[in-house]
C-alpha cells in the first residue's frame, strides 16, 4: 500500500515542473528578489503568475517560495503561527507534491519558512529564508489611494503623512493604536509594511540573520530585508514604540514571552490564552513546561477573561 502511494506521488510530481512554475518565470522572480535584496524595502514589480488557488490565499508567497526552493530544502508553512491551519496544510501539501521536498513543523529544522501573520517565536538563524504572504504591500495606501502619488512619496522619501496618522492616533486614543502592519523604516530609507504581522513581531525583523522576502501576488510586488538590516519602527520621543503585553501566561506551556491567542472554550464564554506559535508551545511542553491549564492543573473555570494590558 505504501509503495502504491509513493508511486502515485512520483507520477504526480512528474506531471509538474519542479516547484510548479516554469524555469523562465522562476528566473524572472529571482531577478526581482535580487533587486529587492540590493535595495531593502523597495517594492519591485514582477509578473505575477496564475496559481492553483485564489488571490488572498498566499499566491505571492507561494511564487517567491517556488523560485528559491531547491530539492534539498526543508519547508515549514505557518498561518497565524499554526502549522495545522487550512492554509498552512494546503501549501505544505502543494509543495510536497510539486517539488517532492521534505516538510517540517520545527522552526529550527526548516531552511525555508513561509508564513502568514506571524514571525516564529524561535529565533531564526543564518541560512534560513522566511517568506511572507503579503496582501497589501503599500504602507501608504490607506492615506493615498493613487499609485502615482505613493510612488512619488517613496521616491522623495516624503513620509510625513504616516507620522501624521500616528499622531492622530495619539490625539484620539492617547497612544499609537496600530496593532498590526505597523510601518517601519528599512535601512533608513524606504517606508515598508511588514505584512499583516502583529507589531509584537516587528522587533524580530530588525537585524535578523535570516533572509526575509515579501511576496504580494495580487499587487504584483516583491520586497525584501537582507540579513542584519536596520529596521526602525516609526514612533515619537514621547510616545516610543511598544509591543503588546499580556497579564497572563500561556495556559498550556506557561510561556510569558510569546504572542497569545484568546480562545473561547465553552458556551458560557470562558476563555483561555495559548501561544499562537504551535511549534514553540509544543516544544516547551516537551521540555516539561506546564501552564495553568496544563496536565493535572486547574480547570477552565479559573481562567481569566481579559486579554491585554
Could you explain how this protein is built, in words?
Residues 285-309 are annotated as: Disordered. Residues 285-296 have a biased composition (Basic and acidic residues). InterPro entries: PhnJ (IPR010306). One of its GO terms (biological process) is organic phosphonate catabolic process. Catalyzes the breakage of the C-P bond in alpha-D-ribose 1-methylphosphonate 5-phosphate (PRPn) forming alpha-D-ribose. This protein is an alpha/beta fold. It folds into 2 domains: 14-233, 3-Layer(aba) Sandwich (Rossmann fold); 245-293, Roll (Ribosomal Protein L24e, Chain: T). Helices cover 29% and strands 16% of the residues. It is built from 8 helices and 12 strands. It has helices at 2-14, 23-38, 59-68, 86-99, 147-155, 160-173, 202-205, 278-286; strands at residues 44-45, 74-79, 102-103, 112-116, 129-133, 184-186, 190-192, 211-216, 221-225, 231-233, 260-264, 271-275. The strands form 3 sheets. Strands 1-9-8-5-4-2-3 form a 7-stranded mixed sheet. The chain has a 3-stranded antiparallel sheet with strand order 7-6-10. A two-stranded antiparallel sheet has the order 11-12. Strand 8 (211-216) and strand 9 form a beta hairpin. Helix 2 crosses helix 3. The protein is globular. The chain starts with a helix and ends in a 23-residue tail after the last helix.
Secondary-structure topology with pairs:
Blueprint: H1 2-14, H2 23-38, E1 44-45, H3 59-68, E2 74-79, H4 86-99, E3 102-103, E4 112-116, E5 129-133, H5 147-155, H6 160-173, E6 184-186, E7 190-192, H7 202-205, E8 211-216, E9 221-225, E10 231-233, E11 260-264, E12 271-275, H8 278-286
Parallel strand pairs: 2-3, 2-4, 4-5, 5-8
Antiparallel strand pairs: 1-9, 6-7, 6-10, 8-9, 11-12
Helix pairs in contact: 2-3
